[in-house]
Design a protein that fits this description.
The complex is a heterodimer. Chain A is mainly beta. Chain A contains no helices and eleven strands. By secondary structure, chain B is mainly beta. Chain B is 0% helix and 57% strand. In chain B, strands 2, 4, 5, 9, 10 and 11 form a six-stranded mixed sheet that branches. A five-stranded antiparallel sheet of chain B has the order 1-3-8-7-6, with no helix packed on it. The radius of gyration of chain B is 13 Å and the shape is globular. Chain B starts with a strand and ends with a strand. Classes of the chains: A mainly beta, B mainly beta. Chains A and B meet through strand 5 and strand 10 of A and strand 4, strand 5, strand 9 and strand 10 of B.
Chain lengths: 112, 111
């Protein structure tokens, strides 16, 4: 089954404790991206990747890092999480940029 | 950055009614997408539009890519309870190579 898998689905942690949210897709897609969703703001893109070893900033990259060492994986790293990063996060992928994206089921992060 | 506006922000309708919502931008986009999000899940693609003026249907859903390339609308005919959710439009800018999403329209269907 074609899917985008995110882990964990839920996480409560404390300020400053590094965390990683993993994302994996099994569709051999070139394009992957991360979004955060906040009430009334819709989905805002954090980072995206056009292909392996190619990443670029989206609209709200501050406080986040990503890497794309393999085509299927695109982890989101919060080196020093802060409470304003409490949000619902989605990973998405598509065959290439500009094509409709498949979304994961989301990761709800709470930073205390 | 670029922003999309969606209207209405929310709407309550009776089951069986038709629904219309739209999305506008100050910038030109080359691709418009419409997604639906159910509670606790990720957005799911409803319709993709790739050409100005294009009108595309998917069952009871119809969407159009505006001629100016700065807007799009989505219509749902004969609404049913499972249409409840948040509907997002998204535009793709070939220059920036990233998607921009609207804030969403929350639809409630009353029996």
């Amino acid at each position: 089954e074609a899917q985008v898998t995110q882990n964990p689905r839920y996480l409560i942690t404390v300020t400053g404790k590094k965390l990683t949210v993993t994302c994996s897709q099994n569709m051999n897609h070139e394009y992957m991206s991360w979004y955060r969703q906040d009430p009334g703001l819709g989905l805002r893109q954090i980072y995206y990747s056009m292909n392996v070893e190619v990443t670029d900033k989206g609209d709200v990259p501050e406080g986040y890092k990503v890497s794309r060492k393999e085509k299927r994986n695109f982890p989101l790293i919060l080196e020093s999480p802060s409470p304003n990063q409490t949000s619902l996060y989605f990973c998405a992928s598509s065959y290439r940029g500009g094509q409709p994206q498949h979304f994961g089921d989301g990761t709800r992060l709470s930073i205390l | 950055g670029q922003q999309l506006n969606q209207s209405p922000q929310s709407m309550f309708i009776q089951e069986g009614e038709d629904v219309s919502m739209n999305c506008t931008s100050s910038s030109i986009f080359n691709t418009w997408l419409w997604y639906k999000q159910d509670p606790g899940e990720g957005p799911v693609l409803l319709i993709a539009l790739y050409k100005a003026g294009e009108l595309t249907s998917n069952g009871r859903l119809t969407a159009q890519f505006g001629i100016t390339r700065k807007d799009s609308f989505l219509n749902i005919s004969a609404s049913i309870p499972s249409d409840v959710g948040i509907y997002f439009c998204a535009g793709f800018d070939n220059y920036g190579q990233n998607f921009v999403f609207g804030p969403g329209t929350r639809l409630s269907v009353l029996p």
